Amino acid sequence: MEHIVILDFGSQYTQVIARRIRECQVFCLIKAYNTPAAELAAQKPAGLILSGGPASVYAEKAPLPDPGIFELGVPVLGICYGMQLLAHFLGGRVERGQRREYGKGLLTVTDNESRLFKGLPPEFQVWNSHGDRLTRLPTGFKTVAITANSPHAAIEHRRKKMFGLQFHPEVVHTPRGMEILSNFVHGICGCGRGWTMRNYIEQAVEEIRQQVGRERVILGLSGGVDSSVAAALIHRAIGDQLTCIFVNNGVLRQGEAETVRQVFGRNFKIRLHYEDASRLFLGRLKGVTDPERKRKIIGRTFIEVFDAATRRAGKARFLAQGTLYPDVIESVPIGGNPAALIKSHHNVGGLPKRMKFQLVEPLKCLFKDEVRRLGSELGLPKEIVYRQPFPGPGLAVRILGEVTPRRLEILRHADAIVVEEMKATGWYYRIWQSFAVLLPVRSVGVMGDERTYDYTIAVRAVESQDGMTADWVKLPYDLLERLSNRIINEVNGVNRVVLDISSKPPATIEWE
Ligand code: XMP
Predict the structure, then answer these.
(1) Is 314 in a helix, a strand, or coil?
(2) Domain boundary among 138, 167, 188
(3) Of the residues 338, 358, 385, the one at which a domain ends
(4) Euclidean distance between the first and final Cα of the chain, in Å?
(5) How many whole angstroms separate alpha carbon 277 and alpha carbon 198?
(6) Residues 362 and 425 placed together within one structural domain of the fold
(7) Distance CA 178, CA 125 (A)
(8) Whose CA is nearest to atom 19 of ligand 1?
(9) DSSP assignment string, 93-128
């Protein structure tokens, strides 16, 4: 398939570049910086992008590409560190800057023939990242744009279609950056606009049918975005050969089990095994207060229940999973892979060895925003497609101390009010997560003429890109007031509502 390859030199923006290219409706893949040129030649990308990175080309362990990549004859765009690499390998000179400087700058295009800046004004804002600087152009290159601080803000070798940018076109602080990337992938690499979710469905359906043949597939449905979209897509491909298993672990949110059964069982008519194991889970959680033990009990019990359910569902050769692209990118360790880190600290720690399945992972090359678009295209309701992340161990990590049926009832009700109000005001869809936490602390209050001695609910609302860092959201006072009034008035057993104003780090998103 027509695609662009991004070589990853460890920039925190590598995935952002990839998402921008896909927004241009061009497929792209992220590959390790040292991918052999021969491997790339065999895959025939339409162009290469060299990402930025924290290193200096002169550093001892600087990540360097296979020099053969400059001989592939395909257009190359080097961004920031990627531009230093062009200089380093192609006869230019890079000198060590005193310090790294980030910030807004005004770019002046000095060569209006440059195809990279086609359709752009002569001056526009860019987001700079000055580290090392270019002091001699690589052979055959010329400068096509400057900023106040960099005399070579953009360079190009017109005949070889090689380009270097000192600034970051992929970030939002370079408002016209998308046009530059579009000029590169469409104008210079000649890519069409074939990457749409509608096309993707056709292709994925075909591939799933090929892979699965007449065999049966099992999928563990959690009600979250990824497994839901995977289920809808696989069902489109193979219908009743797919069986979904949905486990009620007793610590779900209000109405969750009902929604899943409604959407998948009744609307989509997917074969759905609903396992209500809530009594088993809650029995095992009785008296347990340690957060790690709670997680372990839930994880182990889930595997047990899921295993038994798959056996009851009949023999299947395949297990489907909603793995996403950020989980599988072969990334350089510099900076790490945030998405992979989130997943490692929880969730099913692998199914028992004797459950031998081959995997079906139809979302493996998609980013989250693409998965949401795919879900909408497949006809899943907004309620599922735009769902906020929810931890596998569910409300158990949002009730501090022991999980009891009474506490669950209180938290479910309070959480439902938070979700309802957040949705009604549109805030739900703008932020990463918003939820209620039950603190097993009781304090005195008055209701009518009576003294109360009840629990506290903490409201947590955070913004985040990937869950690794987060900041608390400054929700409007009138919304907070409504949340507080409604929770205290409507939820029996709560007489105080507090707002969590901690960022991560040092706090975490969940309280546990
Ligand atoms: P923390 O609390 O570590 O959470 O700041 C980071 C993100 O991960 C989610 N989370 C989980 N997701 N299973 C999941 O699927 C889990 O066990 C789990 N624990 C935390 C959390 O909701 C937040 O988005």
Answers:
(1) coil
(2) 188
(3) 385
(4) 45
(5) 37
(6) no
(7) 13
(8) 391
(9) EEE--SS-EEEEEEEEES-TT-GGGTT--SEEEEEE
Residue 109 has pLDDT above 50, yes or no: yes
Mean pLDDT of 237-263: 97
Query: If pLDDT is split at 50, 70 and 90, which confidence band does 332 have?
Result: low
Which residues in 363-375 are b (16+ Cβ under 10 Å) and which e? Answer: bebbbbebbbbbb
The residue nearest atom 10 of ligand 1, judged by CA position, is 391
- Same domain for 114 and 7? yes
Measured from the CB, is residue 322 less than 6 Å from ligand 1?
no
Mutate to test the pocket of ligand 1, among 221, 343, 345, 512 (most ligand atoms within 8 A of CB): 345
Residues 111 and 19 both lie in one domain:
yes
Amino acid at 229: V
Q: Is 285 left (phi over 0), alpha (psi -120 to 50) or beta?
A: alpha
Instruction: Mark whether 299 and 351 lie in a shared domain.
Output: yes
Alpha carbon distance 80, 9 (integer Å) = 10
The pair of three-digit structure tokens given for residue 269, joined into one six-digit string: 């008519």
Residue 419 and residue 271 share a domain: no
Q: Are residues 184 and 201 in the same domain?
A: no
Ligand 1 atom nearest to 464, measured from its CA: 24
- Tell me which residue of 418, 435, 394 sits closest to 484, measured CA to CA: 418
The total number of structural domains in the chain stands at 3
223 lines ligand 1 (CB under 6 A): no
Say which CATH number the domain at 20 has.
3.40.50.880
Ligand 1 proximity of 296 Cβ (cutoff 6 Å) = no
> What pLDDT, on a 0 to 100 scale, did the predictor assign at position 343?
39
Which pTM does this prediction carry? 0.90
Cβ of 310 less than 6 Å from ligand 1: no
pLDDT tens digits along 481-503: 999 999 999 999 999 999 999 99
Read off the CATH number of the domain in which 449 is found: 3.30.300.10
Do residues 204 and 125 both lie within one domain?
no
Residue with CA nearest ligand 1 atom 18: 391
Strand ranges (E), 33-189: 47-50, 76-79, 93-95, 101-109, 123-130, 133-136, 142-146, 154-157, 162-165
In 10 A of CB 103, how many CB atoms? 11
Strands 494-499 and 471-472: unpaired
Domain span at 278: 197-385
Take residue 270 and report the two structure tokens written for it: 């997917």
**pLDDT score, position 359:** 96
Alpha carbon distances (Å) from 35 to 330, 338, 390? 10, 22, 36
Q: What number of residues does the chain have?
A: 512
Amino acid, res. 331: S
Q: Is the pLDDT at 301 greater than 80, yes or no?
A: yes
Average pLDDT over residues 357-370: 96
Q: Is 509 part of any domain? A: no
Instruction: Indicate which residue of 88, 152, 170, 256 is catalytic.
Output: 170
